[in-house]
Specification:
Blueprint lengths: L6 E2 L3 H5 L9 E5 L2 H11 L4 E8 L11 E7 L3 E6 H4 L3 H7 L5 E4 L2 H8 L10 E3 H4 L10 H9 L19 H22 L11 E2 L16
Parallel strand pairs: 2-5, 3-6, 6-7
Antiparallel strand pairs: 1-8, 3-4, 4-5
Helix pairs in contact: 7-8
């Protein structure tokens, strides 16, 4: 049986035409140790959560910053751990090393690289969506595009370069930070449950047939 190979990819123009996504759940900003520990105890009872980080942007050559914020989300509640105020709590390290909770993110190697500037840890039971989506013919690697392909919505990146170590996070920052971790979880659940049909996607890209070249050989003397 002849099966035409294809990939799934969304263009910047197609993405820009999609409606903007809004985080639908509750948001808890954690700046004190007791609240953070209670949140981690709750998150440890979950089967699967979304995971993401934010780092204060660096505009000076040669300067590096550490992670300012860790976002851990269920489908209806986002918890924002402000590491610049909390530090890297032992309980947070325990959660990252917890083998019983699936933690879903994107480009996790980058997150771990920056987090390791704060402390040593061994991440367990993490799933990187960039590896998962390949099985569904999706060739795009950004969260914004993957979400657009699957849910036909656009994640705004307007707050990406904002100051994540400000004395207080604005409502816009809180919403932005919450969406990425939540989106990772939503994508993972959707794919895991078999709810995405690649063959019916409007973003299928079929490779062009190579042009036929003459089999004649021209010999010059």
């Amino acid at each position: 049986m002849d099966i035409t190979p294809y990939s799934i990819s969304i263009s910047k123009q197609q993405l820009s035409q999609l409606p903007t996504v809004e985080f639908p759940g509750a948001i808890t900003v954690l700046e004190n140790v007791d609240g953070a520990i209670r949140a981690l105890e709750h998150l440890s009872t979950q089967n699967t959560v979304g995971f993401d980080t934010e780092t204060k942007p660096n505009f000076r050559k040669g300067q590096t910053n550490t992670v300012s914020l860790i976002q851990i989300s269920t489908l209806d509640h986002s918890f924002l751990f402000r590491l610049n105020k909390l530090g890297f709590l032992p309980e947070l390290k325990q959660f990252i090393e917890n083998e019983n909770v699936v933690k879903v993110g994107l480009s996790l190697k980058d997150d771990f690289h920056v987090l390791h500037r704060l402390t040593d840890f061994e991440p367990h039971n993490f799933v990187d969506l960039q590896n998962v989506v390949k099985s569904f013919h999706i060739t795009d690697s950004s969260l914004q595009k993957i979400y657009g392909i699957i849910f036909k919505g656009r994640i705004s990146k307007s707050q990406r370069l904002s100051n994540w170590e400000a004395s207080e996070l604005t409502s816009g920052q809180q919403a932005y930070a919450s969406i990425d971790a939540w989106a990772c979880l939503r994508i993972y659940n959707h794919l895991r449950d078999g709810l995405f049909e690649p063959a019916t996607s409007p973003y299928i890209v079929i490779p062009e047939e190579p042009s036929e070249k003459s089999s004649e050989t021209v010999t010059t003397q």
